[in-house]
Amino acid sequence: MVLNSVKETGVLVVGAGPSGLALACDLARRGVHALVVERAAALFPGSRGKGLQPRTMEVFDDLGVVDAVLAAGGPAPVGMVWRGGERQGEHRLFDVPEPTETAPYTTPWVIPQRRTQEILLARLRELGGDVTFGTAVTGLTQDADGVTAELSTGGTVHAAYAVAADGGRSTLRRALGITMAGESVGPHPMLVADVRVPALDRDHWHMFPAADDSGLYAALCPLPGTQDFQLTAQLPAGATPDLSLDGVRGLVAARTHLGADDVTEVRWSSDFRPRAALADRFREGRVFLAGDAAHVHSPAGGQGLNTSVQDAYNLGWKLGAVLRHGAPDSLLDTYEEERLPNAARMLGLSTRIHRGEARRGAATQQLGIGYRDASLAAETREGLARDALRAGDRAPDGPCGAGTLFDAFRGPHFTLLAVGTDAELPPPDGALLHVHRIPPYEPYGKGLFLVRPDGYVGWAGEDARGPAEYLASLDLKQP
Fold this sequence. Notes:
This protein is an alpha+beta fold. It contains ten helices and 28 strands. Strand 1 (6-14), helix 1 and strand 2 (34-38) form a beta-alpha-beta unit.
């Protein structure tokens, strides 16, 4: 589809990466039309962001794509260390707890980034949306009523809001004058490629430490649902990566026991300099930054794509509240308030893992991310135990009637959960508020919990008037 005239939309999303597609899906199910424009002619073709963390799997559950993601991927394989062509034994990259009632997804899930994006695009099309490929934003202005974007096709788009989800080198971020401060997290450039290596078994994530004291390494990770491996390799400082078939073959032969001819195909290849960078703000008027446009991570620890998807999940319900439920524009200020500090923490974690200063563990699963100190967290109880669930925390899963709490939460609505209390509850309010009552449940204790559309507790207390007062403070109305 080519845009060559004036078009009106609720939200202009610039970039069809994971954050842009997830945001468009979330908006579409809320009845908010998003026009997604992508400079490239097609979706990203490589495997780069291949690891999905448990919290992202929960987001995908809510967005209706988790079954497709589970079918297309697989658990992260156990590492196998090689030296001198001999297997040295297995190496576990991270600790993986068993699934529980409160957290049904605990295993990092490996799926090529291209498949994640294909699944999100298919879901967007199911919801009535699409992506306009081969279209870049060449100019953007904004006023009190919206934004106007000029497109490379010669068309113009008017939107209430725009979201820059156009990657670490974001054109839109630069045009807005938003700076991104960062640092290199290591001196070595990296090569990443999707390769075919039939001679190598697909039961392990194969790791090849340097044979000398250079510290350089290579690794080959089997990609579920494909015949490919993802090759990652550190290169000497100052080296210029050779991304050609012969260059990748030569690198594999030099770093592993495999021969150059064992690499039968290079399906995609790229290079990058590992760095950590964070935008100084995530909002400029009616334009928001999301994903790599707002924060750039080292790939170590698998935080970049996951943090990006959760940016979209946080912003989506707030844009929906403003555009569909009449909430004030000031609600959108909480996007930066909540996401910027969390992005900063995840950047620090990625950098420490890259430098070998931290291990992949509970923090990388992102289940502990929360917004307790943010303005939307209203905790009205006193004397709580240190480990008690509080407003601002992720709402745990658990049994609810014939299903689960995640079943109850699924959708664009708020959920009022009454746990072990006979308090009189307000009636459900159409698409805005669903109400459920369950017996006492240890992860929650007892009380009333108003769960936001993104699965975090917004209000917690015992006074049945509190949830209505909280929603009234947001000034939400039925569309």
